[in-house]
Amino acid sequence: MIEIKNISKTFNGKVVLDDVSGIFRKGETSLVIGASGTGKSVLLKCMLDLVEPEKGEVFFDGKEFLHVSENDRKDLRREMGVLFQGGALFDSKTVQENVKFPLDMLTKMSEGEKNDRVEFCLHKVGLDGTGPRMPSEISGGMKKRVGIARAIVMNPKYLFCDEPNSGLDPLTSIKIDELIKEITDDFNITTVVITHDMNSVLSIGDNIMFLYKGKKLWEGDSSTIMTSSVKELDEFVFSNHALKKLRGEFTK
Ligand SMILES: Nc1ncnc2c1ncn2[C@@H]1O[C@H](COP(=O)(O)OP(=O)(O)OP(=O)(O)O)[C@@H](O)[C@H]1O
What we know:
Layout: E1 2-11, E2 14-24, E3 29-33, H1 40-47, E4 55-60, E5 63-64, H2 70-77, E6 80-83, H3 95-106, H4 111-124, H5 140-152, E7 158-162, H6 170-187, E8 190-195, H7 198-204, E9 207-212, E10 215-220, H8 231-237, H9 241-250
Parallel strand pairs: 3-8, 3-9, 6-7, 7-8
Antiparallel strand pairs: 1-2, 1-4, 4-5, 9-10
Helix pairs in contact: 3-4, 3-5, 4-5, 5-6, 6-7
The chain binds adenosine-5'-triphosphate.
Adenosine-5'-triphosphate binds near residues 16, 34, 39, 41 and 196.
């Protein structure tokens, strides 16, 4: 479980996060949603200690993360897997080398053990046999899968995904969402996904936090989001043209 408490962040006098608190539970895929520029990625960076908030705390299974010694923070970092926006693969390394990278950097495993682990992770994301290929030789959806394989290679307790659907067609997006949910369930980990994709919201949102101009305005799940009485959330949800049309049909 991850708990964030009263996170506030300002850039050049502009408040980007305003006293955001919340809980992301183990075994659940939690989503942080909101329009562009509303502070989702900054919140993620605060949770990962890539950006320092002016105020607030982050607890990983009860262990405070931001105000501990560098060594303790390093230990906790090893338990986190991150799928960065855009995948962030090394173009000059093969798929296999990309996935193996965290093992090379952070473990003393033998080459054989590392190769077995990489093979297991590539199998988990449906990419058996893709190891020798270069990132330039695979599709956008496959690159995301490689990013996910790399994010889980260290067997993390916590998985963070920043806009996992960006740049993907709707069908591939759904498959990536399903994969993230499957991994969360299978490994019983705490997963936080940053997104503004309504398909994801409706299909994998066990727990959803809505940010608006840096504030948490609502939280709930995919079964309650369509009927919320929060005006800003309603505008966000029904900014999707197809959903707006669907609502029109229902209220005729
Ligand atoms: N390093 C930075 N320096 C100054 N301003 C920043 C910095 N990082 C983010 N911001 C500002 O913080 C605000 C929130 O940005 P953030 O990237 O969190 O938005 P977002 O909700 O993730 O948007 P998107 O969905 O488009 O990725 C924006 O106004 C952005 O310009």
